[in-house]
Amino acid sequence: MKEIPKKSKAAVLVEYGKPLQIREYPIPEVEPRGILVKVEMAGICGSDIHQWHGRAVMNAPLPNIPGHETIGRIVKLGEGRTHDAAGEPLSIGDRIIWPHVDCGECYWCKITRQPTMCAKRTLYAFRCCDDYPYLMGGFAEYEYLIPKTEVVKVPDELTEEEAIGVGCAFRTAVAAYERLGGIGIQDDVVIQGAGPIGLYSLLLAVEGGARKTIVVGAPQARLDLARRWGAHHVINIDEILDPTQRRDQILDLTNGRGPDVVVEGSGVPAAFSEGLEMVRKGGRYLIIGQTTQLTIPIKPSTIMNKGLDVIGSASASIPHFYKALQFIRTKRAKYPFADVVTNKYSLERANEALANMEAGKEIKPVIDNRGR
Amino acid sequence: MKEIPKKSKAAVLVEYGKPLQIREYPIPEVEPRGILVKVEMAGICGSDIHQWHGRAVMNAPLPNIPGHETIGRIVKLGEGRTHDAAGEPLSIGDRIIWPHVDCGECYWCKITRQPTMCAKRTLYAFRCCDDYPYLMGGFAEYEYLIPKTEVVKVPDELTEEEAIGVGCAFRTAVAAYERLGGIGIQDDVVIQGAGPIGLYSLLLAVEGGARKTIVVGAPQARLDLARRWGAHHVINIDEILDPTQRRDQILDLTNGRGPDVVVEGSGVPAAFSEGLEMVRKGGRYLIIGQTTQLTIPIKPSTIMNKGLDVIGSASASIPHFYKALQFIRTKRAKYPFADVVTNKYSLERANEALANMEAGKEIKPVIDNRGR
Amino acid sequence: MKEIPKKSKAAVLVEYGKPLQIREYPIPEVEPRGILVKVEMAGICGSDIHQWHGRAVMNAPLPNIPGHETIGRIVKLGEGRTHDAAGEPLSIGDRIIWPHVDCGECYWCKITRQPTMCAKRTLYAFRCCDDYPYLMGGFAEYEYLIPKTEVVKVPDELTEEEAIGVGCAFRTAVAAYERLGGIGIQDDVVIQGAGPIGLYSLLLAVEGGARKTIVVGAPQARLDLARRWGAHHVINIDEILDPTQRRDQILDLTNGRGPDVVVEGSGVPAAFSEGLEMVRKGGRYLIIGQTTQLTIPIKPSTIMNKGLDVIGSASASIPHFYKALQFIRTKRAKYPFADVVTNKYSLERANEALANMEAGKEIKPVIDNRGR
Amino acid sequence: MKEIPKKSKAAVLVEYGKPLQIREYPIPEVEPRGILVKVEMAGICGSDIHQWHGRAVMNAPLPNIPGHETIGRIVKLGEGRTHDAAGEPLSIGDRIIWPHVDCGECYWCKITRQPTMCAKRTLYAFRCCDDYPYLMGGFAEYEYLIPKTEVVKVPDELTEEEAIGVGCAFRTAVAAYERLGGIGIQDDVVIQGAGPIGLYSLLLAVEGGARKTIVVGAPQARLDLARRWGAHHVINIDEILDPTQRRDQILDLTNGRGPDVVVEGSGVPAAFSEGLEMVRKGGRYLIIGQTTQLTIPIKPSTIMNKGLDVIGSASASIPHFYKALQFIRTKRAKYPFADVVTNKYSLERANEALANMEAGKEIKPVIDNRGR
């Protein structure tokens, strides 16, 4: 392994809506239990586009280094950091992945044991990078993991393309699926949205025992991947514009009763009212894609009269990262996991990656530092 | 017991918005497993007012005999009907209570085992009373229970005033509480609405292990009963008109975090958005009072970002009637259950009862046939 | 379809331990909602051997017609019987399958809603066949289904060999899996026993999201089928006789922690203590194969100190039949379901089938009436 | 507050079965996040007797300072230790209570999120007290809490007598009750054992919605307290020696069906087989009192054929301490919590306390340091 430099380049969001700038930041000393990684690959998430334009639910302070779904290769291990969260030994050169950092002290961390609800989470990529320790985002050559960060090793046999989705969409889907309590034997499942969250939710439904899976989304390239990942049916919302027509099609596919489970992974508020109308009486509805603050009119009586369970889930914790990686490891012969990565960009071309993502040309583009 | 007459008087809804008329209908022959009861008491429910004006979610065909929460005294038992649902023997003279009738044949009855979602329920009080067997509503001297009806005996020690709420609001609250999975040890619970559904939900929270119970509703008489039934705090919405102020008060009472559980029992769509804002992150929200078809704008992202469980529940089945009766039987020394009945009217004064209910002068008025 | 004869042949258990005798019984009139079927195939279950020798937990009265897992073809439909439990229309010539008959009246049927615990179930194959309606077992040309029997159609595309296991082992596994609450994402699962219950449990684990499945059983032919049905590992108890050695092997396969879930489907009491030792701390243990009354010494402290969930499940209801059939219908391209049937015998050779089953030469032998 | 001395007296177990000796140990420096407390009260647990005689499941190394259920008053707070687990500020003089210390690193702490199953817990009172930091047991004047220890404040209005049971028996019952998923509305509950674990389990059943609670135990003084804590029935096992007779009595009290829930809190292995026979078909059985390694013969088929959930639970985590304290705080006007403390001894009389406990003369004796 190369010598560790004094500074790291990073693609920095300096002003909302303006191109990221390549800047250099000092690489910090590694504290006990801290970790320094060389970034191997940093995924670009739909929410990065909102963040770029300053219209996210929670805007990061400026300037900051985006990139919250990152695979890093360990270059320095702080004292006392010997194993990953699953008990595997950690060494220089191992590839790892990590969640945001729960405070471990608040009511949600201590008493209700719902750490994703932590009142004081430290979020990677949502930090001012002029402040120590500077390098806490993935759009960089190096990234620093603070001592409280939980990490899990990426199994050796996995490529970065296969594993990168674990950093955000897949672990979110895994955590949500656990909140749901899993899919019942032979449940019919509709997934709203064909982006990474929708696609990974599809996989969990297919492998979790669904009878029929139906993905409702666009564009066609995403739906094509959905088919390769096991979807029994896809409905292209660019072609079938009328929600009532979509619902009728879904009712036809589900014996006239509607799906047992609907997973909202679309990010569109209107999907919620569409899903409430579509799910069968007595069914379950998982909400995991709503990243905006927009409102939508709904009938609360529908939730009551249909006897629904509507379950919200956001973010995830280290067990979900671990399980997502295990899932890929055991199913990689079966599904082309790497196909979620539609393009690779150098750090210097980060703006191009964001632009193509925004233009709908990508499923998941990545910053690829592997040659670096 | 008196001889059974050939005909029964009933207060009949002939035209929406017009006074009920006293009419007479033939008392039908009792089929095998059917039951004929003398109506002892028939409760008046908030939904009866909507029904009266023809603005209910589901309007009954005209003419019909209202009254879906009824205590009847058995006057004739059809062949083969020997025991109630809990295995107690049935005899002439026993008082009983009963739910709507599930078809027992549909996908929800047979496969998903969610009988309250039954696709073809036969609903008491929602039948044209010109059609055989005529007497399927409680606003009458006699009522006929069809063979498939499940029934449970009212324990001898209970008065009709204590038990009448079981027929609708209390069994609804019991079924909902089971869907919720109960109250956690020392959960803080807010109940929206101080009508019968809110009040019985309060009792279940108090007796189910809540730390703090807060009832939000009006008018004061209902809140006073809520206090007698164990509410730790009440908030009068006629006095505190601003939802934000109510929410602040609730946050003050719940360590700034909001309640662990909110139960919507108000019937007002706006309560849903108020509840979503109020419930703590990671909390649970039970929707059981929404009887209108009205819409309300909400942020779906709130359900997701707070990681909520939103659980809808409507109606109930025979186990919930049984458990509600057992609850009253075992707690009657502790709570003045009869106080829910604020007035008793003769069958001939049914219109007066409806008018006073509509005017907000009552919690639960009843048609009292006991002297008859 | 041929004309319905007046009498049906049946293989009858007249005396425990003696060969079944071929006798003839009158075919009864079909009551409203009753059904007469021509038996197409009748499976032989391990418990039939215990029954044959009069050493079952619950011995049937003599004489009786064995056969509780049967596929019948409808030859006569009683009045009012128009649809199956899933709402599909029923016609003469359809193949159906059915569970034992819950009383629908007892505390478990009505109040706790646990119909498999019904206090007064009518069990097919556990009836004296000298009593009307005589033909209530599968080892016969015709079988009569009483009016309360719930039935579900066998999908047209399924062969009898594929579907026959639904009648007992598979529906049992489905019901148990629901009691368990499903397999967690990437759980490691050990199945004790490689007979039909073990094999179908394996399928549910594989298709329900297990990481690793390990089947512990014998003889090799069953383990070979387990491999074809997706088992990742098999342990032959005829080769590894020492439970400690088996446990060590399983610990090696499960990161030294033991499996997250153990399913007991072996029928051997000693498997219970072996499983308690093997399951990981905080794991779950499903007990579904214990058909004897024998005792075994265990340490109750193991259940406590390991923080286990030990879940018993017996028999099943109509939804589980339906889901098992749907499972086969949707996965038949993937698994050789028919391989569970290792031999087919004519009704006249029923004794040979029992003898070969007892000798351990079969997985599931069947009485095959299809040519008849 | 007095000046902190250099040394603390402790009652030390030097040799199994021999009297504890009063020794002095150095009071250690308080590390960051460590806490030094003056012991106010230390409870004596049934397991201390086993420990004393060296026959516990897990024997502590010698010499050690017993006492794992302790209320301490803060005399020194390590740097960075500002709030308790519920977010309440901590100050010198506050009374606190604390669980054993999870490693926070193992598979159970990180991945399965079952911290009571932690592979490397640091247990108070199970440490050689010749090793730094010496004072990790409650039978002492001072006790030292290591930095990872989670603590919760004892509410000001509670006396030590009211709160002392939280340190072991009550938090165990709270954790177990959560594993059980609570008591269903109007469930009948039998508690086996009338020691502290049985008594606190009783309280949770009474306040959690049970219809009938029946405590089976001895001696009479404990059963008398059970009555004061709300038991509807008690069965004295010193008077009714035959388990069959006890079972019959319980069946009589539970409509012939048996209790919906049985809680084993007796510590006696034979209670397990008695409980399996007693619980109703389809019921639940919680195992929380089994502190020995002894075996007992049972029929695994009973678990299966009755369709039981048998749930083991051991120890607890900080949320359960918090909830137990909140429970006492909100119900102290209703129950004489302090009555569980049957005697108070000075540190110097610790041997007398142990002897009386062993002789069955006590429910919970305590070491009372408050005057010191």
Query: What proportion of the residues of chain A form beta strands (DSSP E)?
Result: 15-25%
List the quaternary state of the chains: homotetramer
| Count of DSSP-assigned helices of chain A | 11
Domain module count of chain A: 2
Q: Roughly how many Å apart are the termini of chain A?
A: 12 Å
H and E order of chain A: EEEHEEHEEHHEHEHEHEHEEHEHEHE
CATH architecture of the largest domain in chain A: Alpha-Beta Complex
Compile the SSE list and pairings.
4 copies of one chain form a homotetramer.
Chain A: E1 7-12, E2 21-26, E3 35-43, H1 46-52, E4 70-77, E5 95-97, H2 107-110, E6 142-145, E7 152-153, H3 160-163, H4 169-180, E8 188-192, H5 196-207, E9 212-217, H6 220-228, E10 233-236, H7 243-253, E11 261-264, H8 270-278, E12 284-287, E13 296-298, H9 300-305, E14 309-312, H10 318-331, E15 341-345, H11 350-358, E16 364-368
Helix pairs in contact in A: 4-5, 4-10
Q: What is this structure, in a nutshell?
A:
Chain A has 372 residues and is an alpha/beta fold. In chain A, 26% of the residues lie in helices and 21% in strands. In chain A, helix 4 (169-180) packs across helix 10 (318-331).
